[in-house]
Design brief:
Blueprint: H1 2-56, H2 61-74, H3 84-107, H4 109-113, H5 115-150, H6 154-161
Length: about 180
């Protein structure tokens, strides 16, 4: 009888451990997916930004070319394994480029009135909104995992299974000060 109880306890403990590992794996994968989505949207935003820079070439060729080269050299791909710091660095590059484009459009009002310019700016804005939404999803997923990792008894197994707390995406301060592009 004692052996049956011991075996049943071991089986229940094993089932709980497997269930815990699966739940943590799902949460971890949700975070990876959210980061990958941010990467896709940032990449699309960079593409729209590059199209915007191409439009400014006719007005400020040297400055536009220099900025395009700078962006290409500093741009990196955000993947599921990227860190929140990687995302912030890429967003800072975009913010800097938009600030410089804003200075060009202030010098050339006809550029600001250009239909293609307006379409490119709408695309940049649209991708920015998608990035914001993905940041919220990422941070929500991180909260769920981090909360679970701190809870007893899951906290006992989390380290054994290789799960660790993840960092949040913090707000980019400079975006609030960014000049209006319209």
């Amino acid at each position: 009888m004692g052996i049956i109880i011991a075996v049943a306890a071991v089986v229940l403990l094993g089932a709980w451990a497997v269930s815990c590992q699966r739940r943590l794996a799902v949460m971890d994968e949700n975070i990876n997916n959210a980061m990958a989505q941010i990467g896709v949207q940032l990449s699309s935003r960079f593409d729209a930004l590059t199209a915007l820079l191409d439009l400014t070439k006719g007005y400020a060729a040297h400055e536009s070319q220099t900025l395009i080269e700078t962006i290409r050299s500093r741009r990196s791909v955000i993947t599921a394994t990227s860190t929140p710091d990687d995302v912030v660095k890429q967003e800072n590059i975009i913010t800097e480029a938009l600030g410089r484009i804003s200075m060009v459009t202030e010098k050339y009002p006809e550029l600001k009135a250009n239909e293609s310019y307006a379409k490119c700016m709408n695309a940049v804005d649209s991708y920015e909104k998608m990035v914001r939404t993905s940041r919220l999803i990422y941070n929500d997923s991180v909260t769920k995992l981090n909360r679970e990792l701190r809870m007893f008894p899951t906290s006992l197994l989390a380290g054994v299974f290789g799960f660790r707390q993840r960092g949040y995406l913090e707000a980019v301060e400079d975006k609030a000060d960014m000049p209006s592009m319209r």
